[in-house]
Design brief:
about 325 residues; alpha/beta; Rossmann fold; seven-stranded parallel beta sheet; 12 helices; about 15% strand; globular; aldehyde dehydrogenase (NAD+) activity; NAD(P)-dependent_oxidoreduct; NAD-dependent epimerase/dehydratase family protein
Length: about 325
Amino acid sequence: MNLITGTTGLVGSHLTLRLLEKGEKVRGIFRSEVSKSKTENLFKLYGKESLFPQIEWIQADILDIPVFEKAFVDVERVYHCAAFISFDPKDEEKMRKVNIEGTANVVNCCIDFGIKKLCHVSSVAALGDLKEGEKILTEETEWNPEKHHSDYGISKYGAEMEVWRGWQEGLETVSVVPGIIIGPGFWNDGSGAIFSTIEKGFPFYTTGSTGFVAVKDVVSAMISLMESDISGERFILIGEHLVLRDMAYKIADALSVKRPKINAGRWLTTFAVFADWLASLFGKKRKLFAETSDAFHRHRKFSNDKIRTALGFEFTPIHEYIRETVRIQKGKK
């Protein structure tokens, strides 16, 4: 039996589908019927709705240990995909509680129930800090606590420390560290909003750059690592590095809509953050923060050599997967 936290998210739902296609048993954790319907809708997008009833659902919260630990009965492998993502300073306490304490609970339950192996989904936000002269982030780049990190990055780094603790206590573990994950099914959430925003005619682009990866590659790497003898290791999952402007162009072309035309420089994104904050004083929910504004202009490059060497892994070209994502989302054959 495979237990998946975050079953109703982008990675968790795709992972659930892939494991069921392989004929494996899956127990999925959900918090509400509404969230569960997101996974069901994804199965329908792929024409795999007949597999959905095979999921053994358990309603639980990773912070509610008495209920949560019941999900571990008769489980061999655990995929920990659940996380709270936010760049709102007001969410710092909740983010640390869910991402660090929640992961500690997962690790402790894995140890208590004799789980064979744990796979944790981390983030490039948890990677270290480049020293002078270094240009590419790797799994070994050292975290410098004196440097500035986002609250989200700190929480994911803390989560990784809990996984590392579990490994030291005898639990077999692997961690995957993906960049921006793209895929169908969640166009109103997270990275999926990039597609829906551009489809609506958003006119702006920025010229920062970062790493992207197809959700199907993330899932494939996770399953392969869990089936391997590898333990106590983390692996960066980046399919391709792209300038955000070029990413926007590729998405617009795949959607057959107009490309964004206006370069939003730092002054414009800074003003947008201020205007968004001002609107929040009158009850509007904030969408832009200083951290996201910085990300629009930052250039980061990551090495994916480790996963390529360990598994002979090959990534899907992002331009191909953008077209595939649009095709699946639009129900095109």
